[in-house]
Specification:
The protein is of the alpha/beta class. It has 14 helices and 9 strands. The protein has a 6-stranded parallel beta sheet with strand order 2-3-4-5-6-7. The chain is globular and about 60 Å long.
Length: 351
């Protein structure tokens, strides 16, 4: 193990902070021994706060329509081969009913930036879920919206909002997105959401095209400074109908390494072991948990639409019923020595 990298890992454990150049050095000099040290420290830090709990979120993918044209995404508007769908309000509420019966106490409504889901429609859905299940949290992941829209959704009862920043490097962001999308606005939205009282989630792709260790160091420094309540990272996986169809996927190894680093940066963060991890490796989600993750998101969407919400190729769990999906993940989590938590799983704040 590189001694300087080991020293940086121990300093990170103690202080939760490194300089950008030091994050870059850690990434460039990673090894199996260093990854094992970071994972050990990350698990210790997580267990001091959350014990052995792994939180389950019920994911409902409500629409594959999207106005954006992100170069990496399978539901980008230019993909003419994408099978578009949107769930009705009744279907969304039925998914929540089924999820509640299975023990879920957080519902994550995720979709493309679909104009059908106006403030009026989305606020009504949020209110209906919250009125029926007041003990549950509602998380939204519906992209960039206006400040007024975010405020209305918060007032309707939405608890959390996930908005991946994708990369903290403006120049890198501009190589992944069309000219009409703005890095500055993406970052501004995250601060607006926090100001409105949402629990806020950001996140980035690991191994996306043109990404460098310096870019990843910028992501880590952003997480250190912003301190998101949730942080979703997963390996980039190409979609066949995008400009990045022939690009290599990100790796399980680097993703798990970064999960451990993020846990040490902000031990209280809610950190998912993503579906993308399970897609690139059969035991990817288990290895994510053993690297410091503490959230999983089984799919509650109707089986008939799951293959249509295809952000990347070969996505797993597209044919399982909700109960099967939950049961499978619970068995996988138990195999790691951790346990399913059935509560809302809010971030533990410092006293």
């Amino acid at each position: 193990m590189n001694e300087k990298a080991r020293g940086l890992a121990l300093r990170l454990e103690e202080h939760g902070s490194l300089l950008p150049d030091e994050y870059e050095f850690l990434i460039e000099n990673r090894s199996d021994d260093l990854a094992a040290l970071l994972a050990e420290k990350a698990n210790s830090a997580r267990e001091k706060i959350y014990g052995k709990k792994i939180f389950m979120r019920g994911l409902i993918e409500i629409s594959s329509f999207c106005k954006n044209d992100c170069l990496y995404c399978g539901i980008r508007r230019s993909n003419k081969n994408c099978e578009r769908y949107r769930l009705s309000e009744e279907e969304i509420l039925n998914c929540a009913d089924e999820g509640y019966a299975l023990g879920f106490r957080t519902f994550v409504l995720q979709g493309g930036e679909d104009a059908f889901f106006s403030d009026e429609v989305l606020c009504r859905i949020v209110r209906e879920i919250k009125e029926k299940y007041p003990d549950c949290a509602v998380t939204l992941s519906m992209g960039e919206r206006s400040d007024e829209s975010f405020r209305a959704l918060r007032e309707a009862g939405a608890d959390r909002y996930l908005l991946r920043h994708e990369t903290a490097s403006k120049s890198h962001y501009e190589r992944l997105h069309p000219a009409e999308m703005s890095f500055d606005n993406r970052m501004r939205c995250l601060h607006v959401l926090r100001g409105l009282g949402f629990q806020v989630g950001c996140g980035f792709m690991v191994g996306s095209p043109f990404q460098t260790s310096r870019d990843l160091a910028a992501d880590l420094k952003f997480i250190e400074e912003f301190k998101p309540d949730m942080c979703g990272i997963g390996p980039f996986i190409a979609h066949r109908n995008t400009p990045f169809a022939n690009e290599k996927s990100g790796t399980l190894e680097l993703t798990c390494f970064l999960l451990s680093v993020i846990r040490l940066i902000y031990p209280r963060v809610l950190l998912p072991a993503t579906t993308a991890l399970g897609t690139i490796a059969r035991d990817g989600r288990e290895r994510g948990i053993l690297a410091g993750a503490n959230v999983v998101m089984p799919n509650l969407s109707p089986v008939a639409v799951r293959k249509k919400y295809e952000l990347y190729d070969n996505k797993i769990c597209t044919g399982e019923e909700s109960a099967q999906c939950r049961g499978c993940l619970e068995r996988r989590i138990i195999s790691t020595g951790y346990e399913i938590a059935v509560d809302r799983g809010d971030i533990k704040k410092e006293c």
